[in-house]
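pls design
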């Protein structure tokens, strides 16, 4: 009987892995001061969009990024240790699938239950095709996190970003006009 259960579970895992339409959770690195790369760029863009980070989006996890992460973690109700592991990624990009991280070098601390949603501290701009800059990078990061954008996070609101915005708007029952205003921001930042 145990063998049959194990076999059935293995088959489900294989089907979920190869079946079309099944979204795989993104795999991200555990980040801390000294980390560098595209995951840091995505982190900085998202924190900037949410109003926690005011520094340059340069892909280098320095003290200013550390402080922004700690502010976000405190607002999200998780341990404000400045280390971006699965709990922080899952608060930044809440989805039905948990974010996977590379194997952690140390155990993460337990957190309180619940998912408080931090409120952005600044006004969110209205974005449309032709817009450029950090807000567009943050938008592209969120669109990627919710599974509607696979293009480059380049800060340019071009045709690919517009199509992803329309897909997100349709997904959340909004008018799919490709313009990111208050209702669209509210839906994609949930």
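designed seq:
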């Amino acid at each position: 009987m145990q063998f049959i259960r194990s076999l059935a579970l293995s088959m489900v895992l294989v089907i979920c892995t190869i079946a079309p339409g099944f979204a795989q959770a993104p795999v991200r690195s555990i980040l801390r001061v000294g980390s560098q790369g595209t995951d840091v760029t995505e982190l900085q863009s998202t924190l900037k969009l949410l109003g926690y980070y005011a520094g340059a989006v340069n892909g280098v996890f320095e003290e200013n990024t550390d402080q922004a992460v700690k502010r976000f973690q405190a607002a999200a109700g998780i341990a404000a240790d400045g280390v971006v592991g699965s709990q922080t990624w899952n608060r930044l990009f809440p989805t039905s699938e948990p974010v996977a991280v590379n194997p952690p070098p140390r155990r993460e601390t337990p957190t309180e239950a619940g998912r408080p949603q931090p409120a952005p501290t600044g006004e969110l701009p209205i974005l449309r095709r032709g817009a450029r800059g950090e807000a567009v990078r943050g938008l592209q990061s969120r669109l990627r996190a919710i599974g509607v954008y696979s293009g480059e996070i380049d800060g340019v609101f071009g045709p690919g970003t517009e199509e992803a915005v329309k897909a997100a708007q349709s997904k959340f029952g909004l008018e799919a006009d490709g313009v990111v205003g208050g209702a669209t921001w509210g839906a994609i930042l949930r």
